[in-house]
Design brief:
The complex is a heterodimer of chains A (114) and B (117). Chain A has 114 residues and is mainly beta. Chain A is built from no helices and eleven strands. Chain A starts with a strand and ends with a strand. The termini of chain B are far apart. In chain B, strand 8 and strand 9 form a beta hairpin. The chains are: A mainly beta (114), B mainly beta (117).
Chain lengths: 114, 117
């Protein structure tokens, strides 16, 4: 158990819908990362937050957005869902205090868009 | 942009034997970290081993070791005395060491390792 929790574990929805994925980082970790793992794109970085502020952006679609709240949990919002958004979405966290920080991954949320 | 290449989509190894998974990367940075992650059928991402680019000595963690060739931009993973529990997808990953706070990982496409009893 990495200490990072993600809810829900599974999500099945229809095209055009909007969903929210939630991540609780390890206690004390300030940085949260979101990654998407899909069959055609592999594992790719979406976005990073550090202590409530956006720190880095990767291949995140405009239909996707994220935020980190004062209690440091993070939410990834996916809207106007398409079949191709079906993937495993990972959240990872790290202390954010040193460049040596290791990222700890949550168990992921499997999103299926029908 | 950094790229990570794993040219072996699948590998197999006999139980108790040794297997080496390959990884190459491309970067213009001089300081960075390289990782091998294991993803078993549970889909959990598990860190196997880490190498800091400024360290010449190859990292070792029990049965897992790496061969880091900085000039060749090569970072292979050797698994000795393979066990059935080693069967998984293995991802090579790169991370910049620059302290901008943006420390996301760049992943390769993965190598699926099968362990034959």
């Amino acid at each position: 158990d990495s200490g990072v929790t993600q809810t829900p574990k599974h999500l099945i929805t229809a095209t055009g819908q909007r969903v929210t994925l939630r991540c609780s980082p390890r206690s004390g970790d300030l940085s949260v990362y979101w990654y998407q793992q899909s069959l055609d794109q592999g594992l790719q970085f979406l976005i990073q937050y550090y202590n409530g502020e956006e720190r880095a952006k990767g291949n995140i679609l405009e239909r996707f957005s994220a935020q980190q709240f004062p209690d440091l949990h993070s939410e990834l919002n996916l809207s106007s869902l398409e079949l191709g958004d079906s993937a495993l979405y990972f959240c990872a966290s790290s202390p954010g205090t040193s460049k040596l920080d290791e990222q700890f991954f949550g168990p992921g949320t499997r999103l299926t868009v029908l | 942009a950094q790229t990570v290449t794993q040219s072996q989509p699948e590998m197999s190894v006999q139980e108790a034997e040794t297997v080496t998974l390959s990884c190459t990367y491309d970067t213009s940075e001089s300081d960075y970290y390289l990782f091998w992650y294991k993803q078993p059928p549970s889909r959990q991402m598990i860190l196997v081993i880490r190498q800091e680019a400024y360290k010449q000595q190859n990292a070792t963690e029990n049965r897992f070791s790496v061969n880091f060739q900085k000039a060749a931009k090569s970072f292979s993973l050797k698994i000795s005395d393979s066990q059935l529990g080693d069967a998984a997808m293995y991802f090579c990953a790169y991370r910049s060491a620059g302290w901008t706070g943006a420390n996301n990982l760049f992943f390769g496409t993965g190598t699926r390792l099968t362990v034959i009893p």
